[in-house]
Structure formats: C-alpha cells, structure tokens
UniProtKB/TrEMBL annotation:
<protein>
    <recommendedName>
        <fullName>Damage-control phosphatase ARMT1-like metal-binding domain-containing protein</fullName>
    </recommendedName>
</protein>
<dbReference type="InterPro" id="IPR002791">
    <property type="entry name" value="ARMT1-like_metal-bd"/>
</dbReference>
<dbReference type="Pfam" id="PF01937">
    <property type="entry name" value="ARMT1-like_dom"/>
</dbReference>
<dbReference type="InterPro" id="IPR036075">
    <property type="entry name" value="ARMT-1-like_metal-bd_sf"/>
</dbReference>
<feature type="domain" description="Damage-control phosphatase ARMT1-like metal-binding">
    <location>
        <begin position="3"/>
        <end position="144"/>
    </location>
</feature>
C-alpha cells in the first residue's frame, strides 16, 4: 500500500494508513506502521516530508509540535488503528478515532481478501470506494467474481 499512498501524497491527497490494532495472520499492525513508513522515508522524499508533517518520524515530532501552533493545516499522512484483530473488518466495530477520521473521506480503499472481499464486497459507502484483493479461495472466487483462485480484484465504486 505504500506505493499507492506515495502516489496519492504526490498529488496532494491526505492519506490515513489504517492497520489492525492486534495481530492477525501475517498482517501489519498499526504499532509497526510508523517504523515501516520511517524506513521507506529514508528512500523517498515524498514519504519523508509527509511522515515528518504527520509526526511519524521521531526526530520530527518536536518540530511538528512547534510548527503546529503556527500552522493549522491538515496532516498529509497519519497512521490509525482500526480497533480490530482479524484479517476481516466489521465496519460497525471500528475504533472511534478511525470513524471520526473517515467521516469526511472522499475515498476509502479496502485492501486484502478479508477486508475487501470476504466481509465488505457488497458494502456501499457514502464516498468513493476502491476494493483491492487477490482471491485465495476457489469457492469465494467462483461465488463473488465468477473467477479462479489467485485472480485479482480491483473494484471501484462511486459514492452511493
């Protein structure tokens, strides 16, 4: 997701990276995301600037606190927990912080078979949605997309 986040940031989009609060299978958890972003930021100025502005880089936090008094503009890159510990996501049970951040979103991207297909393939949103996944179950592939195992899904849905 970082290359996609980078591209959105490059175009001036505010990005909220969301991950599980608790471990599930091999998924990244929210506590790990700042370190992952910091490592990627060593190689990418776009991510570095966004991570600094969002306080994700440890050495940038004091600068952010000082400049936030002068500049009330939005944060380009944030990391939030989803309140879950499953590869699926029940959107009725997300964290209050995530619900507040998503309230005025223009686009929601659900990535992964559990989040995008298994539990939210038919979910409708009041903003645009992009559902990205690789189908790793033949029965689900046949049922949802009339396809095969390892087919990829990239489903864009305009706001409903």
């Amino acid at each position: 997701m970082l290359p996609l986040a980078r591209e959105l940031l490059r175009h001036g989009t505010e990005v909220v990276l969301v991950a599980n609060s608790l471990p599930a299978l091999n998924d990244v958890i929210a506590m790990e995301l700042p370190d992952i972003v910091a490592e990627a930021a060593k190689h990418c100025d776009i991510l570095r600037r966004a991570a600094e502005a969002g306080g994700l880089l440890v050495d940038a936090i004091s600068n952010i606190r000082d400049s936030s008094k002068e500049n009330s503009s939005s944060v380009p890159l944030m990391v939030l927990e989803n309140g879950c510990g499953s590869p699926c996501i029940d959107l009725r049970q997300i964290s209050a912080e995530l619900a507040a951040a998503a309230k005025d979103a223009d686009l929601i991207i659900l990535e992964g078979m559990g989040r995008a297909l298994h539990t939210n393939f038919n979910a409708r949103f009041t903003c645009d949605a992009l559902k990205l996944a690789m189908v790793k179950n033949q029965r689900l592939a046949e049922k949802l997309i009339k396809g095969n195992i390892y087919d990829c899904v990239c489903r864009y849905e305009p706001a409903s």
